[in-house]
Amino acid sequence: MASRLPKYVQAFLDRHGRPRHYFRRRGFAPVALPGMPWSPEFMSAYTQAMAATPHMAVQCKHAPGTVDALTTSYLASSSFRSLAPTTQQVYRTLVDAFRAEHGPFSVAGLKPEHVVRMMALRPTPDAANGLRKILRALMKHAVDTGMRKDDPTRDIKAVRTKSTGFHSWNEAEIAQYEARHPIGSRARLAFGLLLFTGQRRSDVVRMGRQHLRDGVIAVRQQKTGVELAIPVLPELEEIIAASPSGQLTFLVTEYGRPFSVSGFGGWFKKQCRAADLPANCSAHGLRKATARRLAEAGCSALEIAAITGHATLHEITRYTKAADQKRLSRSAFEKLKREQECQTQGEGLTKRAKIS
After folding, report:
1. Residue 80 and residue 279: Cα distance in Å, rounded?
2. Which among 136, 199, 230, 234 is most buried, taking Cβ atoms within 10 Å?
3. Looking at the predicted structure, is the pLDDT value of residue 3 above 60?
4. What is the pLDDT of residue 2?
């Protein structure tokens, strides 16, 4: 058992002498935590407990119909609790920020022009779209619970941006990282798991030897719940065999404990900086690089989705289109080159015929 427990966790022995662990936080429902502290299943349950909503009985009462009352109700709703733990954390941050600004105001008084104005005051398009996203969720809940009869965000469009999202690593950046972090290092193990499985960091930090079987690694994606069986490529097999790892997870901190998702993200960014890579190189960018490589190898969108677990093919289609464009343009120039060579040979034959 780890000597130091996560915050709000209490340990005791039951009447059979077995260790038990509970999440106990004032104002929150107690939660029994499975497995041993810091194990993947333990930390998954712990993350959900941390993201839970306090008991309604101990929450402050808010005036009916206010933003305070709406946000409190939404955070206790099944629609919010059904979100993935990482998504809950993001939504909760946005909801709390909106409540801090507008808590005492009436929900019924919110009009479309107010939404447009609030979005315009956000510092970046992404911040404006984030506000729109959380307002749409709140207004849907307001309609569902009778706080409003209409949704003022219904016709509000997202701010268009030219951003393509996370930077997709190119081959030069991949080679640069590999040159800095040799096989056998934790940094190379993390890199290999990200690049050769195409999974999110929330899934990579939970992978362990128990997930390897018959040449594949079994993954149940934390965000989507999708179950995948991903073939282990020889490159990844070599990296895993040469790398020290924890008992339950391949990747562990310097203290021998499994990484948290956010902790891993920060640690991996440090490994990228150590390799003198651009600041936009991130763990998620390697997931995109995996999709790009698969597309360039001629894989279809469905084949790529079987590895990455994407629920929709919109993003993957961009990679396959780009790969197809490269192949088609290369094929077109090869045809043009052959045509020019044929013309040159024909002109040579004509000249020789005239001379003879």
Report:
1. 33
2. 199
3. no
4. 45
Residues 36 and 78 in one domain: no
Decide if 344 is inside a domain.
Answer: no
Boundary-marking domain end, from 136, 163, 190: 163
Whole-angstrom Cα distance, residue 5 to residue 262? Answer: 18
> Distance between CA 141 and CA 153 in Å, rounded?
12
143/212 same-domain check: no
Residue 341 contacts by C-beta under 8 Å, 6 or more apart in sequence? none
Distance separating alpha carbons of residues 39 and 21, to the nearest angstrom? 12
Tell how far CA 169 is from the center of its chain: 16
d(Cα 210, Cα 135) in Å, to the nearest integer?
42
CA distances from 183 to 180, 242, 283, 323, 351 (A): 10, 7, 18, 30, 61
pLDDT digits (tens, 9 = 90+) for 157-181: 998 877 667 889 999 999 999 999 9
Residues 6+ apart with CB under 8 A from 90: none
Cβ atoms of residues 240 and 208 within 8 Å: no
Q: One-letter amino acid identity for 265?
A: G
Give the ranges where 51-198 is alpha helix by DSSP (H).
67-75, 78-81, 85-102, 112-120, 125-144, 171-180, 186-197
What total of structural domains would you count in the chain?
A: 3
Residue 82 structural domain: 54-163
CA dist 290 and 299 (Å) reads 11
**237 within domain boundaries:** yes
